[in-house]
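quick one, 129 residues, struct below
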Amino acid sequence: MRGETQDRGPKRPNGAREAEILTLLHRADAALTPGEVTERLGGGLAYSTVVTILTRMHAKDLLTRTPRGRAYAYAPVTDDAGFAARRMRTVLEERPDREAVLARFADTLSDTDADLLRHLLDPEQKPGR
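---
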């Protein structure tokens, strides 16, 4: 069947698989090996696919890895908020006009978020402008 993997359901984009695995790793108590990730995914992916995804995520500096037996154990390099901040920074760095991007971003913030950002940039600033 087109778009299907052998007895594994519909094919999903790699980004969705990475997000699924990253969420799983965030919820884990410790770093996980590919076998442990495969098991916790409930058999939705082949072991070799999990190894490939983890290796690519490590190459993207999303995960750390440490040897454990004959495999590596993988863990996220930061928490969910840290990943969101990295994505925001990457988008900002990819644009030639940083000022325009930041201005547009600031224009879309709610009053509450704008106050929070002001406070984070200047802790002496009192909330509520």
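Strands lie at 4-5, 9-10, 63-68, 71-76.
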